[in-house]
Amino acid sequence: MSNREPIGVIGTGYVGLVTAAGFAELGNDVYCIDIDEAKIAGLERGEIPIYEPGLEELVAKHRGRLHFSTDINDALEHARLLFVAVGTPPSYSGDADLTAVFSVVGSMPPEGEHALIMKSTVPVGTGRAIKRRFEETGRSNFRYVSCPEFLKEGSAVKDFLNPDRVVIGDDGDWAGDAVQELYAPLNAPILRMDIASAEMVKLASNAFLATKISFINEIANVSEETGADVSEVARGMGLDDRIGPKFLQPGIGFGGSCFPKDVSALKQLAGNSGYHFQLLSAVIEVNELQKRKVIGKLKRSLGSLVGKRIALLGLAFKPNTDDMREASSLVLAGRLQGEGAEVVAFDPIAMEEAKHLMPHGVDFADDELSAVRDADAVVLVTEWEQFGKLDWNEIAGAMRGEVVVDGRNALDPDAVRSAGLRYEGVGRGREGDPADPAVVAGADAQPASLGSGPG
Ligand code: UDX
Using one digit for the tens of pLDDT, what is the confidence trace for 400-427? Predict the structure, then answer.
């Protein structure tokens, strides 16, 4: 019998479900609430609506501790701590849409000792606004805590159980203490601070990580022009303790449910308070341009793209997820079609999701080999592990053309080239450029370091 207190989790999306399963693993009874009846019915049958490694097993393991319902009273009755993990999508103005958050606030009863623990990413000042709402509606007993999530898709369960830090923004009352108690067994640094600062930690962390990606993408673009190899540059930079090696992987832009939304939300938040956050405008612009850079690369090799068949390998915004939100593949496919190309696509997991979101007319292939058949060019969009093991001789045999654009620097350039194909990565010099040692030294020369660095 666990002596840990039962909790509620409102919203059984990505964050809510991982949080619920994580706390169940720590021994809490968790009352999971969602307004989506079909989703709750599915969860009761053990069906997990998202693809996340380890989540299904964890939910199955703790079936006895996880209770699913569409009625918020089920959580209110059993738990005083109610984690809020509802969506906060961007609205037309660029501000976060807080409709779902305020609908939860509105559904709180007039009395009782409860606290809302905000997991959803919200603008700085939301906690203050919610506390004011509680005051105005005579619910001054309610407490509020900001406890932002930092989970990465694809490793969310692991991230929950081994966080780098737990941030708790509160008013120094019982609710903050109780949340601290909940996370104590994880042995992670727990930071207590005021609510506005906790809200800002989340936005600032994601904006900083996005800045790191746009920065290395610009270094990659300059490296391409000047003959440097960005993989080597990143390796050299990353060993500086102050910089660190992570998030220095150039590619065709960041996507997902968090970075694009949070960067815009912070820029908007700053703008609303009269401050122009210049750096973030550049981060966003660089990212948009980066998604389109592949088009230039293809045109340099193929000329006009009209009627050309282009195979996209990988569609999800990153590997190990079926999440297509803000995936670079969406923009790329649309741009390719805009140039008159035929687009054929394959993703090992995200295909069903992709079918709802990809532009009309995209062909979906059942596997890698069918995708590349008769293609003039292949573009690696998402670095799924299996694409690193492709047999390039077989692929070369199936393709009509010979162009391979590695949008994530995840392929082995030598393997691609020795199959007689033309390889172009991101920021690794250009095939055919004078800066390419293979060209300078003649075709028979040993492949030099340029373009053969680690993926
Ligand atoms: C991110 C944050 O990491 C997490 O802390 C937050 O809670 C939610 O947002 P996630 O969206 O799952 O998590 O993805 P992440 O692994 O951080 O990658 C985001 C995007 O950046 C992906 O499109 C990825 O391909 C791209 N990326 C990441 C790069 O292009 N280069 C890198 O070096 C790292």
Answer: 999 999 999 999 999 999 999 999 999 9
Kindly state if the Cβ of 207 falls inside 6 Å of ligand 1.
no
In tens, the pLDDT along 149-175 reads 999 998 999 999 999 999 999 999 999
- Which ligand 1 atom lies nearest to the CA of residue 153? 12
Q: Let me know whether 20 and 114 are in one domain.
A: yes
212 and 140 in a single domain? The answer is no
Nearest to 264 by CA among 25, 93, 437, 454: 93
Which of these, 187, 106, 203, 206, lies nearest to 146 by C-alpha position? 203
Residue nearest to atom 30 of ligand 1 (CA): 254
Ligand 1 atom with minimal separation from the 253 CA: 30
pTM of the model as a whole = 0.90
Q: Tell me if 375 sits within 8 A of 401, measured CB to CB.
A: yes
Domain coverage including residue 109? 7-193
**Active site positions, annotated:** 258
- Which strand (E) or helix (H) includes residue 32? strand 30-33
The verdict on the CB of residue 256 being under 6 Å from ligand 1 is yes
Residue 151 Cβ < 6 Å to ligand 1: yes
What domain count does the chain have? 2
Task: Kindly state if the Cβ of 318 falls inside 6 Å of ligand 1.
Answer: yes
